Amino acid sequence: MRLGLLRDRDFRLLFTADTISQVGTQVTLLALPLVAVITLDATALEVGVLAACETAAFLLVGLPAGALVDRLRRRGTMIMADVLRAVLLASVPLAWWMDQLHMPQLYVVGLLCGVCTVFFDVAYQSYLPFLVGKEHLVEGNARLELVRSTSQIGGPTVAGGLIKLLGGPLAIAADAASYLVSALALWRIRRIEERPVRKADAHLGREIMEGLKFVLSNRLLRAIAMCTSTGNFFGSIINAMLIIYLARNLALSPAVIGLWFSVTGLGALAGAFLVNPFVRWFGQGPAMWISMLGAGLGLLLVPLAQADWRLWLAASGYVVFGIGVVVYNVTQVSFRQGITPDDLLGRMNATMRFIVWGTMPIGGLVGGALGHWLGVPETLWIGCAGSLLSVLPLVLSPLRKLRELTSAPSAGTEVVRK
C-alpha cells in the first residue's frame, strides 16, 4: 500500500490510537480468560459465561447506543469509552494484588468493557466517513484492518511473554495503559464535527426504529446481517473453548499459546493486503461469499490440533480463516458506510452490531454448556462445522453475482452489474 491517507495528520492520529488500542486489546483477549483458567481455576461453563459477558452489551445497549451516538460528537464518545475501559481493566490487577480477585469481578469487567466497546465501535465506524470522506472508505477501512491484523500477530506474542513474565493480571494492566494512550491520540485530532442538531420532536424509540427499518428493509443488508450473525454465533462457540483446549487438553504454556495466536494472525494481515485486488478480481458481491466459504473451510483444521506438528496444521487453517474474514469485513463494512446517509450512520452501525454481535453472548453460553456436557474437543468440532452455514445467506441473495454495488437494493433500488 502507498501512503495515501497516512499523509493526513488526523487520520494518522486515528491510525495511531487504533494501533495502540488494538495491541493492548489482544493482550486482554488472551489474558482475561487465562486469568480465569489458570489463576482462578475456572470451569468450562464459567469461561463460557465470561465470554458471554464480554459480548452481551451488544444485546443490552446495542440499539440505543446508535441513536445516542448520532446525538453526540463521535470523537468525544470514543475518548470517553477509552478512558472508562482503562479504569475498568485497571481494577483487575488491583483486586489481584489485594487478593480479592474472583470470577464475578471478571464478569462485571467484561460486561462493562463491552458496553464501552459498543459505543466506541459505533462511534468509530460513524466517524470514519467524516474524517476521510466516503470516496476513501475502502482505503480507510483497509488501513485500520491492517492495524487490527498486525496486532493479531504481535499482540498475542507480547501477551504470552507478559503473562509468563508478570502473570495474567499484570498483563491486563498494560492494556489499561494502552487505552489511555489511545484516548490521548484521539484528543489531539484537530478535525472536529459540529454537534448534531437535535430535532425538537426527537424520540429515542422512534430513532431506534428508523435504524432498524433502514437495515431490515434492504435485502442486501439483511443477507450481510444473517451471514455475519451466523458466523459470530459459531465463532463464539469456538472462542469459548479454544483457550481451554490449548491450555488444558494440550497442556501448552501461555508463551506457546501466544505464539500460536500470533502465527494465526498472519491470515488477517494477508487479508488486509489482499482485499483490494480480491475485490477487483471477483467483484464486491462474489468477494463476500467466496471469502466466507474459504474462511469456513479453513476452520475445519482447527479441531485437529495436537501438541505436535498438527498444532501448526491447525494454525494454517486459522490463517485461511483470517484471510477470508478480513476480505469479507472490509468489503461489507465499506459498502454499508457508503450507502448510508450521514444522519443514520450511528443507527445503521448500531443496528448491524446488535444483530451480528448479539449472537455472540448466546454462542459463548452455548459453547460453555456444550463444553461442560459433551467435552471441549467435541464442542470445537460443532463450532467449526457450523461456521460453514454462514455463507448460505450470501449465496442465496443477489450478492452472489453482483460485481459492483453502487447502492443497496431494496424494493425498486438499482444496482450496477459488471
TrEMBL record:
UniProt-annotated location(s): Cell membrane
Entry keyword set: Cell membrane, Membrane, Transmembrane, Transmembrane helix, Transport
Pfam families: MFS_3
SUPFAM superfamilies, alphabetized: MFS general substrate transporter
Major localization class: membrane
Top-rank lineage group of the source organism: Bacteria
PROSITE patterns tied to this protein: MFS
Membrane-spanning parts: 20-40, 47-67, 106-127, 170-189, 223-246, 252-275, 287-305, 311-331, 352-374, 380-399
Residue ranges constituting the Major facilitator superfamily (MFS) profile domain according to the UniProt record: 220-418
Matching InterPro entries: MFS_dom (IPR020846), MFS_trans_sf (IPR036259), TM_effector (IPR010290)
Gene3D superfamilies: MFS general substrate transporter like domains
Membrane topology, as annotated: Multi-pass membrane protein
Record-given protein name: MFS transporter
Natural source organism: Dactylosporangium cerinum
